Amino acid sequence: MLNELSEEYKKKLKIIKNHFGENAQYKKFIEELKELREAMYRIQELKYRNPNPDDFEKFLILQWDTYNSGVLSEIADCYVVAYQINETDFLRSYIEDLELIPPHLIYQNTRNARTKIIEIMKFKIDRTIERIRTGYYDE
After folding, report:
1. Hey, which of 60, 78, 84, 139 would disulfide with 17, CB 3.0 to 4.6 Å?
2. Is the CB of residue 2 less than 8 Å from the CB of residue 88?
3. Does a structural domain hold residue 60?
4. Residue 4 carries which DSSP code?
């Protein structure tokens, strides 16, 4: 997904990493992974209600807009930090290892998930840059 970000956003990621420091971003990455896991476990509850894998996948596709904002936002958070610390391969395998959402629903642009993740990432990067600029984190 990084190659879908412009050079401007790649530079912003470096600014964010430099502002907080690499060690802080590793800690942030762990925090974001926990939040993603919690969001995905909420989906697992839906899976238990629909034990047939084919029915569950159809349910997810049909209900995408109902649950995606939380999960996609958490995925975006993780990717924003993962790119800063070069842990995107780990993140992708982590998401796949949770086995809660079929990977193609996230990575093959089903229902524009990939596009939405990129949009959320850009929003979060811009918001962080603005907060750095205004001293929000200095308090």
Report:
1. 84
2. yes
3. yes
4. G
